[in-house]
Amino acid sequence: MIVFCARRVWQAGSVNRLVGASSPYLLQHADNPVDWWQWGPDALAEAVARDVPILLSIGYASCHWCHVMAHESFEDTATAEQMNEHFVCVKVDREERPDLDAVYMNATVAMTGQGGWPMTCFLTPEGVPFYCGTYYPKLPRGGMPSFTQLLTAITDTWRHRRDEVQQASTQVAAAIRTQMAGLPDTEPTITAELLDDAVAAVLRTEDAEHGGFGGAPKFPPSALLEGLLRHWERTGDPAVFDAVSRTAEAMARGGIYDQVRGGFARYSVDAGWVVPHFEKMLYDNAQLLRAYAHLARRSSSVLPESLARRVAGETVQFIVDDLGTAQGGFASALDADTHLEPGGPGVEGATYVWTPAELTGLLGAIDGAWAAEFFGVTTAGNFEQGTSVPTRRSEPVTEADNVRLAHIRAQLRTARARRPQPARDDKVVTAWNGMAVVALAEAGSALGEPDWVAAAVRCARYLLAEHVVAGRPRRASLGGVVGSAPGILEDYAWLATGLLALHQATGELGWLHDAQRLLDKAIEHFADLEAPGSWFDTADDAETLVARPRDPIDGATPAGASALAEALLTVAASSDPERATRYRDLADRTLDRGAVVLSGAPRSAGQWLAVAEAALRGPLQIAIATTQPRSRPTELLATARVAAPGGSVVLAAAPDTVPLLTDRPLVRDADAAYVCRGSVCDRPVSTPEELRSALQRV
């Protein structure tokens, strides 16, 4: 029987099936001549009916090379005709569907030894990969075939050597299942010695000259900085603090940090943090805000508090002002590219770079020369075509220079705002917004900025109202409309951790209850029932893929399992004894499995390290019994927020109004602070000096 399937014929000005997508990345491709499908059973059925392979293209909205391949190939009518004739073409946003990205990235790495985006995979109609790669150019270069040559070769193999396709797909599927088998339940377990060894291994990879770990390209070690800070707080090892402060200062002074507006770029292409890859991600900035705020409250002569405090404040401003959405959430990213003309190719860095002549023309000869020297803008340039990415190698010497710098930065921001701007990915991702809630709540509490906490509250309320459907989070929303993609483990974990941070920041019991409900759902749907403490990244009722994804490695964002470990540890320290026992047991089992990552790949275990350090300390609970209203933090609470080690649970409330204050009364009708580990507490103290002394002893 011959099956005829209608295929759309593209005409100029027409759109394809992506026009109704909830992803900005997919919408970028809605006017391609490619007959794109969204992932789903209809696309798979179309491939079965036509007996053609699936061409799966995975990327994200702020990805530079995704834009390059789109401009070269997907916008080209002849290339699109070849794609449409011989394949069912499916476009996926990796940020909206991280489960698909995880499966097919594992396949790509298994086949090629490396991964990246755009990811280009060829699948059987059942969704099993048989050939994978990343970016392919329009014309052959550097030993790489052109994209159309690859399409021709795949089509020929599919038609004439189907047995090879079957053999390859069977081998790749087996490799993916092996890679996603989970962590073993074996030694080692979490011990102080293990963490000491892990940190020592990390320090051996430090770039002592430029800061950071390893060579170029250099990614901000966001979660690792928090883990190292907690290790230093426990051990007092000055070498650890020195490594953290060197890295934090180097990034804050380099071009990876936006010296005009604030906020961090995705990574630096060089070892010295000078030239960034210009996309700015919410998840990077949320994690770095947490680390810089932590560093700011643990000030030292090595990294002046003013620098860490300034960077934290400017990063908050970037997150709230540049990524904030009308609904109260935060957008995912700013693009790496700027389109100087509508429909034209993207240009990296065009919004951000300067020449001395531009500075002089804007600021005048005297201030222009001063600004060029201060920001390292030279005629030779440190970027392309004689332009410079601003850096900041020193601080103003006098108060007059501070005033001058503030005036110049304001003028630069105004002028830069008149330039073409990078596109913004307005997608609101649950997990990344949860990270932002954590960072804003912790930073605002520790640094005395109630407006930051208020921004966290607005975001959390939006997520609970719109993203949590029938008690379970969805992955993302766009324009206030939540998408259909289900939440994955990290969405549950980070949203719960954010709610727990707000419980501490506000003293309100409702945030704790919301977090408990989320975590109970996570335990129900993500636990590996055959391996306690092991977790899948997708729910038990999610779409069945080649393998059920799980990845224990902390990458640009922490692993779902390590994020869940923090949520479980924190909720255990905040809950009534019956609930606490269950949560703590799961946290400990999860951490013991994560010990394998800490011992084998410590640089990729920053979140695991942070949670394990908190667990070794208890985590500490500082419960402050008070009669003061929540709007007026007491001296005891302010002291605890500054002096308590990272991962501690710090809460002030009236006695017996929240679990942490059960049977912890006022002392002689005065506020009292209890420093506890579980149910065991030191004697209560009543002055900030006594509390600081108590925290120094633990």
Short structural summary:
The protein is α+β, with helices and mostly antiparallel strands.
Describe the structure.
The strands form seven sheets. A five-stranded mixed beta sheet has the order 1-3-2-4-5, with helices on both faces. Strands 19-18-20-21 form a four-stranded mixed beta sheet, sandwiched between helices. The chain is built from 24 helices and 21 strands. With 698 residues, it is an alpha+beta fold. The protein is 49% helix and 10% strand. The N terminus is likely disordered. α8 crosses α21. The N and C termini lie far apart (77 Å). The longest helix has 24 residues. The protein has four domains: 163 residues, Glutaredoxin (3-Layer(aba) Sandwich), CATH 3.40.30.10; 331 residues, Glycosyltransferase (Alpha/alpha barrel); 67 residues, no CATH class; 77 residues.
